[in-house]
Amino acid sequence: MPTLEDIRLGQLSVAKGLCQPLEVEECLALQHKNEQTGNQEQLGELLIMRGYLTRTQLARLLSVQREAEQKVTRIGHYELIRKLGEGGMGAVYQAKDTRNSEIIAIKVLPRSRARDKTFLQRFEQEARAAFELDHPNIVHGLDVDFADGYNFLVMEFVQGKDVYSLLEQKGRLPENEALAILEQIASALDHIHGERLVHRGIKPENILVTDQGVAKLADMGLAVDNETQGRRRITQAGIAMGTPFYLSPEQIEGKQQVDIRSDIYALGATVYEMVTGRPPFDGETPAVVMMKHLNEQVPSPHDIDRTISLQFCHMLEKMMAKDPALRYQVPGELLADAQRVKQGQTPLGARPPAGRSSVSRPEMHKIDPKLASALSERPTENTERLAPLLTGPGSSQDSSDDTRYSSGSKIRKGQSAALIGGVRSRAVQANYGDATQNVKLAIFVGLAVAIAVLVFVLISVLMPR
Fold this sequence. Notes:
- There is one protein chain.
- The chain has four domains: 4-68; 74-156, 2-Layer Sandwich (Phosphorylase Kinase, domain 1); 160-361, Transferase(Phosphotransferase) domain 1 (Transferase(Phosphotransferase), domain 1, Orthogonal Bundle), CATH 1.10.510; 364-465, no CATH class.
- Helix content is 49%, strand content 12%.
- The protein is built from 19 helices and eleven strands.
- The strands form three sheets. The chain has a six-stranded antiparallel beta sheet. A three-stranded antiparallel beta sheet has the order 7-9-10.
- A hairpin with a 2-residue loop joins β5 and β6 (150-156).
- α1 (4-15) runs antiparallel to α2 (21-36) and α8 (175-194) runs antiparallel to α11.
- Mean pLDDT is 77; it is low at 225-242 and 365-436.
């Protein structure tokens, strides 16, 4: 995971005109890949290795960075306690309001960014969204002000961790925990959609989970009013580093009309990482990752971990359909299906056609529901009764029928594949057992005849005439 110093260095190198955003993205992606193999490399060294910076330029940037990091302990009425994180819109601190001793979070826009009208407008936009969006699963804004040369936004302090940190700690999350987060963020998106906004920045770092399990969506600086999108649309300069892992295909293609369905896709990519421990697509450069979002598929989570239910994968496929028209059209539809999956029911939303989602169909979708029902009742008996189901029509064909997607609610998680594999083996033996015995008999008779002929020849040669 890039350190705050790495992120700040990348932003500074772009601000000074020494690097392009995609060059920094490339090195951040390479840094992330190297970390997975145990190699810890600083962003500055990678920028030099790729030829994007010289050693002298890096030294100057680090000097400027150290000067900018001079400790600021108080801004206006707020006493800064510790830094919580840093992103494209500035640093976030835990702080105390000296007027009432309330613990809050404060996002401070750097002075250098405040001189940029685009970033200042985005910061003000986040402040408006934070105030206007009153929902239990959205980080709420409390105040916005200017003091001691800094523009800052005061927000509620969330005692907990973001999803990225949870994944760093746990590796991946169980389905029920990921589903609980998905349901809450879908509710937040439903509220955002009701206000005719689009978040455009759904990713693990922007989902905070309290110690009580309440998920909250943060970083409303990317929210865009859908009705005035042409006037307030955010350009590439406004996209925070690291988002190619979660960008929807239409965002990658640069389409003007990006709506809430892009947020649904990004939430799907985030949830995929929750349950598998890795983002859907990876690559050495942002361009490689983005091309994969456009053209490739990743394995179904069920094929990675058989304890992940088929219903959950059904929902995830629809969330990450490459064509927005094949996704959930509004967050309310997604929320309803999430609640159904939570109860062990099949989602109502139709799956995208095969190959039209970034998430491939599970192998289990080919099993006939009658077979699954029979298996759940008597998984090790009556193999002759099951044989027609195994070899009958539809057993090996890919069907778009949603009912065929489920292998039966009575099959326990983690046992479906083992049961079906075992019964399939016994059924094949029941069908072809006689043929196998006939082959063995033919071989035995053939060998006996050959031996008799050989003995006859030897006797004929050796006997005296």
